[in-house]
Amino acid sequence: MLVQLREATVLAAVLLGAWSAQAFIPRMPAAALHQQQHQQQRCGSSLYSTVSDNVQTTVEKRANSSVGLFVTVPGTLTRKAYDQACKRIVEESKHAIPGFRKGQRVPEHILLNAVGGPQVIINEALDILCEDALKTAIDESDVKAVGQASLVSHPETLIGLFKPGEPIVMELTVDVYPEVTFTSSYKGLKITAERIPLENEKVKQALDALRKKRVRLVETPSDYVAKLEDSAIVNMKAYQMLSDGTRGPEMRNIAAGEEVEVILEEGRFLPGVVEGLVGTRAGDKVTVPVTFPDNIRDTKLAGLKAEFDIEVVSLKNRVIPEIDEQFAADIREGLTPEGIKQEVVDAVNADAEERTKMNRNKALESALLEITQAEIPECWIQEETRRKFALMMQEVSTQGKSEEEVKKMITKENFEKYREIALPGTIKTLMLGVATAKVAEEEALEVDPLELQDQIDLRKLEAERSGMDEKALRNQLEAKLLADMVLDCLAENADITYVDVKEA
Fold this sequence. Notes:
Layout: H1 7-15, H2 30-42, E1 47-52, E2 55-62, E3 66-73, H3 75-92, H4 108-115, H5 118-139, E4 150-151, H6 155-161, E5 168-175, E6 181-182, E7 190-195, H7 200-213, E8 216-219, E9 231-241, E10 247-250, E11 257-263, H8 273-277, E12 285-291, E13 305-319, H9 325-331, H10 337-370, E14 372-373, H11 378-397, H12 403-409, H13 412-442, H14 449-465, H15 470-492, E15 495-500
Parallel strand pairs: 7-15
Antiparallel strand pairs: 1-2, 2-3, 3-5, 4-5, 6-14, 8-13, 9-10, 9-11, 9-13, 12-13
């Protein structure tokens, strides 16, 4: 039967299966690129006509990147559709018509009496026209449809106008890919971006940590006195202290054992142990009182009082090497001290550089949006809103809400409220998408297939876990890679002023 597109129906259909929501990426079908050029060359007005297989289609540009189509179906096709409808009804009828075998040709006047009048047959005939003639009209009218076409003509009106063998005009509306223009050149954008400072202190800490990983232990004389930065090799046992101050049972496997290395650095071990060992000699035995800290990993020990019996077996000096040629050669053949330092600088500052680039890209996107003009199709707005709403519901479901509670929140009223709140951000996202696609088209930017496949292979397992199929993953990654290429292209031609920021 004829069914017009209704908001509530679409909402229910999508939200019921929305838990594996995937990013909605606006894109023009490849075949539509030629259609766009062809249409722009032949039609400067908002109204034009096409004729195909005796079906005449008049296309009228409308608001919000949509068009109206007035499709004139000739009498030959209305008669053909009507005859097919009669045949289909007879073939699909659950009950044979009296006097005729199932599937046997039935005269029209008898069929009309059997089904209760012409409305049923006309309705079926209109369905056939929608499946065939209207689809052909859309496909061959140079319309770059991005959404579902819907009938503007009311079904009851069409049923009243339909006469087999006579032409009929049917009005449709469909969203189309937007025409994107720039008010000025996207080359030479002037932007200001915050530059994240390089973290020299972290570089120093990373180099020190690297040196300490290759520390050398040097034997000490028998009368050597332990000091901070040394290593003590000890035997120790821990005992829980009872509430009356007496020693309780031994705490086996709790920071105890034979020939345990204790690095004598403040904060390196349980509070009091390092302090109790500083000043001792090999062979000394000490008892150290300890209170387990509140932030200890095993929360059952937090605040517990204990005593440690410690025997110092030996003491060793910890010699931290300088970063020299030998140090570099021990790490990797051909590596130099300067190479080590540069690798550490690059690794530590990679985050700062990436954040600076993110600030640059954000500023470029804002500048590009300021010069972009386009009407966003309603179906895109609806699709992107549904995606975001579904993701929000997913987030809610991970915050302790039961499945039933979440389902109760998925209502048309809640969706419409969310749509209104999210609308500015939704339009901004989609506008940026078409602007990026436009720049990519004009600059002939294309994603390297091998790089795309590498990215797919890296993320395939994660995508499968989240319910995303490979086609959706491919589209998403291709759009991301293309967007990165566009932003790099804009940056190469932009006038960028970087402002250093001092982070707290």
